[in-house]
Specification:
Layout: H1 2-15, H2 20-28, H3 47-60, H4 62-80, H5 86-98, E1 103-106, E2 124-127, E3 131-141, E4 149-156, E5 162-169, E6 175-179, E7 192-202, E8 206-211, H6 227-251, H7 265-293, H8 301-326, H9 336-344, H10 354-366
Parallel strand pairs: 1-4, 2-4
Antiparallel strand pairs: 2-3, 3-7, 4-5, 5-8, 6-7
Helix pairs in contact: 1-2, 1-3, 3-4, 3-6, 3-7, 4-6, 6-7, 6-8, 6-9, 7-8, 8-9, 8-10
């Protein structure tokens, strides 16, 4: 499965097209439904298994892994704390076992930026005789072209405004991609800007609705454990880069040496440093995920945030070392290492970013 997705990755990276075939492969392997709770007929994969799934897909194509991560995260949250309307979620599960069904949150806005830094949405949900009418623009909606459900964070227009997540079917009238994703890395992730213009949804298609105020803002500590699989995804990218580096070192035979560069001290030393960086990061991520699954109360949210900070740093550094040692071949357009280098730059971008995580960790450490 990983090998086939990896074969398709270069083409999707070049075209920026939605990676439908790769997602179909992941679906047929049962990976898009892995976190559906056992109470709903699913496997009930938890944090560690999710991390290992995304690590494996990330080695093949991190754009596909990121789209998958959003869907897996949705099912994982529902399995732990049911919050979707019961009949609607049952329908989602039934369809998910039959075909690739993709779900993602739409939270970031042009003026607001990331909710991880505080603030409330300007996207507006107006009451109508039959339900809600939703209008606003969201940014960086991963997988936008292929989403079956948008989970849109919005404010109501009621006399006492509330904030909630509105469940919007992907085929609804009034949804338009208004800004194309054209970034350095994860080019096939389809993280486009999406505008919702008077999109009609039923009244009951809303979850987590509550009073307008600070309590409605994103809690970065509460969801810290769910960032461990995301960190694992990018460590998968780094492992793919390491594999390219090893192959290059073992097959490159300069005329002045007469043997592969893998035998030279500088290549062996760099290979050692890359391995140490990645092994340590994986120990933190997978070990932390296992502790979360075991309900280890001594494992604090700050530890999960810290594991992701270090995993991102180590992944970026490991790929940078490989590129630096290879020189021009490492930056040649069209080879896998150049693509892995671009993709790994996206690791620290995801919310909460490093400074927000370090602030939470430092606050806890100063006030135990």
């Amino acid at each position: 499965m990983t090998a086939r997705i990896a074969e398709l990755a270069a083409g999707y990276d070049q075209s920026g097209a939605f990676p439908a075939e790769s997602l179909r492969i992941a679906h047929e392997a049962g990976l898009l439904t892995a976190t559906i709770g056992k109470q709903y007929g699913g496997r009930g994969a938890r944090v560690e298994e999710s991390a290992r799934i995304l690590h494996r897909i990330g080695r093949g194509d991190p754009s596909v892994a990121l789209i998958a991560a959003m869907t897996l995260n949705t099912h994982a949250r529902q399995a732990v704390q049911p919050h979707w309307p019961e009949e609607l979620y049952a329908r989602l599960v039934k369809e998910s076992f039959e075909r690739p069904v993709l779900v993602n949150h739409a939270r970031v806005e042009p003026e607001l930026g990331s909710p991880a830094r505080g603030g409330l949405p300007s996207t507006l949900a107006r009451r109508t005789p039959d339900g809600w009418s939703l209008s606003g623009t969201k940014r960086f909606v991963t997988g936008a072209e292929g989403l079956d459900w948008f989970l849109v964070w919005a404010t109501t227009d009621e006399p006492e405004p509330r904030v909630g997540t509105f469940l919007v079917p992907g085929g609804s009238s009034g949804i338009e991609i208004t800004g194309r994703w054209d970034q350095l890395g994860l080019r096939a992730s389809g993280s486009h800007d999406v505008t919702f213009q008077d999109v009609e949804i039923p009244y009951e298609h809303v979850i987590g609705i509550g009073p307008y105020g600070a309590s409605a803002e994103q809690d970065n500590r509460a969801g810290a454990a769910l960032h461990l699989p995301l960190a694992a995804l990018y460590l998968g990218v780094a492992r793919a880069a390491q594999s390219f580096f090893h192959t290059f070192a073992q097959t490159r035979v300069p005329a002045n040496l007469g043997h592969p560069v893998a035998r030279t001290e500088r290549f062996r030393r760099t290979a050692g440093e890359i391995e140490v960086l990645l092994t340590a990061a994986e120990e933190l991520v997978f070990g932390g995920a296992a502790r979360v699954d075991a309900a280890d109360t001594s494992y604090a949210p700050e530890q999960a945030l810290g594991a992701r900070v270090l995993a991102d740093r180590h992944g970026v550094r490991a790929v940078e070392l490989a590129v630096r040692l290879l020189g021009n071949p490492g930056l040649a357009r069209g080879n896998a290492l150049e693509r892995h280098f671009r993709d790994i730059q996206c690791a620290p971008v995801h919310a909460p970013q490093e400074d927000i995580s370090l602030l939470a960790i430092g606050t806890k450490s100063l006030n135990p």
